[in-house]
Design goal:
Length: 467
């Protein structure tokens, strides 16, 4: 999840204006080699010896064997808002680069992601993607990015603390809190039985604000609205948003079920949970990747559905995308899609199978949990999804009941809500401050805090949006 907690920046506000400064890019140089083969550069590469490089080189070798008309060159640049604008405006983006759902709308609007529609159609992708997900990268009926992974936030829990608190069935299935109020009751039970805080909620590094949006949606809150004249309006100064913040405040001052820490960024959040200092946390399906560094083992980890709110049952959807630079030639776009599909494919090709098994084996060797099934980017009928899920079942290294409720949840999810599409990171920072205030001050006025936050978001950010 850390990749989603990027530094606050106003860079995306300048993307549209930066188009006029675009220079020579991949479409003007390094298009073919001396043998006439199409050259594509792939971002996120590593030249550091190790398992990650070995996997990339194996993938490159297999790809070039199967596609002798293409040469793959590694580019060590990895997407970040701090560097994206300069790379994009200078025409220096790799042919293929990773990005995320938070930024993709602005990237598409600014013209830095190539139209993949025709190539995808020619290669049989029509109807193969999960429609809820492909809609997020579609503009005017055209597809501008290739979704490769998606997640829905759930509720992570410590199996040992759940068992000690009487919240674990004999078969290892956890009791599921139906709503946020029942989660509080579970947290109180954990605290009473074990002396450990029953729940942890982040407050810093944009993590708290990010999770607060998901909580607030379940209260019926929406944070922004685009007006007919193209301007954006902050819309969260509402009684429902105040109620959601009051729920956060009560965790500490009324129920006493959270740690005493008031500055909890992403690292601290996972450290607290991993070291047994909290019983539950809001988490994505891959959260074990972040807790194993602190020594937590798969058998201690569980995951289930996110609780309902007073207004609706909703969760945040996010994930990773592969974009192709808009400077690319048609031949490079075609080659880029062929490269992407060696790892992410609706077909269960031999290469896809080998790549998928390698990735799962790496998780096992790293000590991560294998057993959680993600929200699929594919339609239910896609054979690759069926293959991957069967492989997860085969290589599962836990009692499957630890994550069964989450797996069932993503198969039949509640409402899936994408992240705020404009100034998301700036909003999260403002909401972080709201959470910090109510955790630090027992007398904090939630209504006043939300009013100020909404006004600040409008004046400091939304009033300056140019797209």
């Amino acid at each position: 999840m850390k990749k989603h907690i990027r530094k606050i920046t106003a860079a995306l506000l300048a993307l549209s204006a930066a188009l006029t400064f675009a220079g020579c890019g991949v479409g003007d140089a390094n298009v073919t080699d001396e043998q006439g083969r199409t050259i594509i550069s792939v971002g996120g590469w590593t030249n550091k010896e190790g398992k990650q490089r070995d996997a990339l080189m194996e993938r490159k070798t297999l790809f070039e064997q199967d596609n002798p008309d293409v040469v793959v060159e590694g580019d060590e640049w990895t997407f970040s808002l701090d560097t994206f604008l300069a790379k994009a405006s200078g025409g220096e983006l790799p042919t293929v680069y990773s990005t995320y759902f938070t930024e993709i709308a602005q990237i598409i609007d600014s013209g830095y992601s190539a139209d993949l529609t025709d190539v995808l159609s020619e290669r049989g992708y029509d109807g193969q993607f999960n429609q809820d997900i492909i809609d997020l990268v579609t503009k005017d009926g055209r597809i501008y990015a290739f979704p490769v992974s998606a997640y829905a936030l759930g509720l992570g829990y410590n199996t040992e603390l759940f068992e000690q608190s009487g919240l674990l069935e004999e078969d290892g299935t956890p009791k599921q809190p139906k709503d946020w109020n029942e989660l509080v009751e579970f947290a109180k039970q954990i605290k009473e039985k074990t002396g450990t805080p029953g729940f942890v909620f982040p407050t810093a590094g944009n993590q708290g604000g990010w999770f607060f949006t998901a909580l607030a949606w379940s209260y019926g809150v929406e944070f922004v609205e685009k007006q007919e004249d193209g301007t954006w309006l902050s819309t969260f100064n509402t009684p429902e948003c105040v109620e959601a913040l009051q729920w956060i405040k009560d965790l500490k001052w009324k129920h006493d079920v959270v740690p005493i820490d008031t500055i909890i960024d992403s690292d601290k959040y996972y450290e607290i949970f991993s070291t047994g200092k909290a019983g539950m946390m809001i988490a994505p399906g891959n959260y074990s990747d972040y807790v194993i560094q602190y020594g937590m083992t798969p058998d201690q980890l569980g995951l289930m559905a996110i609780p309902e709110g007073p207004a609706k049952h909703v969760t945040l959807i996010g994930g990773e995308l592969q974009s192709v630079s808009s400077e690319s030639t048609p031949e490079q776009i075609d080659a880029a899609v062929r490269w992407i599909e060696t790892k992410y494919n609706y077909k269960a090709t031999d290469t896809f199978k080998q790549t998928t098994e390698t990735a799962i084996d790496k998780k096992l060797s790293d000590g991560a949990l294998v057993g959680t099934k993600s929200l699929s980017v594919w339609d239910d009928n896609a054979e690759s999804a069926a293959f991957e899920n069967a492989l997860i079942d085969e290589k599962c290294n836990i009692n499957p009941n630890q994550v069964r409720l989450y797996n069932e949840f993503v198969q039949n999810p509640c409402e899936l809500h994408p992240e705020v599409t404009v100034c998301a990171q700036e909003l999260y920072a403002i909401l972080d401050d709201c959470i910090t205030q109510v955790f630090r001050d027992e007398n904090a006025d939630c209504a006043s805090i939300i009013k100020t936050a909404s006004e600040q978001f409008q004046s400091d950010y939304l009033d300056n949006v140019t797209f």
